[in-house]
Design goal:
By secondary structure, this protein is mainly alpha-helical. The chain has 2 domains: 98 residues, Peroxidase, domain 1 (Orthogonal Bundle); 97 residues, Peroxidase, domain 2. 44% of the residues lie in helices and 0% in strands. It binds protoporphyrin IX containing FE (HEM). Protoporphyrin IX containing FE binds next to helix 1 and helix 5.
């Protein structure tokens, strides 16, 4: 669910002023970037149907449900509580393609990609801590904690004799601990989980509102 928020938000362009959290992801599930997100989208659709006939019908949009579901996933896996405002309008069509980061991006390219969405280096590094969830080798797949940063500093994938360790993380993670902008932030969040949680909550709120048009 957290990945779903990022992929709905990630189409935002600060320069063009379009894209963002508007549930357009439902028209974009066939894009290679969005592989695997159908399952998360189905949960949103099922929840949306359950709102029919309740006080939330018409007040909570599909885009709101995406933002709420991501925050809920963070919370139930042990992460921070995040306040999520509602009232985002849903888009009626897909957002522009080609705005998500690529897996072979350098750290500079990743930072530039996030900067184009109006997100700082600090916000990029703290949001990437979401990779602690899922099965990329950053500790327990359903525990939201700062294992991502601790693992990045250990760089287990450099050990060529350990087949398992080499499968930890994804290429875009691997380049971050050597980057002079990202490294101090990684060190900070590896040493201080409370700081990670507080900064994550703030950055999540910003990401989940990128490009939102409020009713
Ligand atoms: C340069 C930036 C990023 C890239 C290239 C990237 C790419 C990926 C890839 C390839 C996966 C693995 C998908 C799979 O095989 O299961 C993944 C997982 C995930 N990503 Fe990212 N990601 C980035 C940033 C973010 C951000 C900013 C967030 C959220 C705020 C996020 C949330 C997640 C989550 C929660 C998963 C685990 C999904 C699951 O296992 O169900 N990612 N990401």
């Amino acid at each position: 669910m957290v990945r779903l928020v990022f992929h709905d938000a990630g189409s935002y362009s600060a320069a063009a002023g379009d894209g963002g959290v508007n549930a357009s992801i439902r028209f974009e599930l066939d894009r290679p970037d969005n592989f695997g997100l159908k399952r998360g989208w189905n949960v949103i659709e099922a929840t949306d149907k359950k709102l029919k006939g309740t006080a939330a019908e018409g007040a909570v949009s599909k885009a709101d449900l995406i933002a709420l579901a991501g925050a809920y996933a963070v919370r139930i896996t042990g992460g921070p509580a995040i306040q999520v405002a509602v009232g985002r309008q849903d888009a009626a069509a897909a957002d522009p393609d080609g705005r998500m980061p690529e897996l072979d991006f350098s750290a500079e390219q990743q930072l530039a990609n996030f900067a184009a969405k109006g997100l700082s280096a600090q916000e990029f590094v703290v949001l990437s801590g979401s990779h602690t969830l899922g099965s990329k080798g950053y500790g327990d797949p359903v525990t939201f904690d700062n294992t991502y940063y601790k693992t990045l500093l250990q760089q287990p994938w450099v050990d060529k004799s350990n087949e398992m360790a080499q499968h930890t993380g994804i290429p875009t993670d691997h380049v971050l601990p050597d980057d002079p902008t990202c490294r101090p932030l990684i060190q900070r969040y590896a040493a201080d989980q409370a700081a990670f949680f507080a900064d994550f909550a703030a950055a999540y709120d910003k990401m989940a509102s990128l490009g939102a048009r409020w009713a």
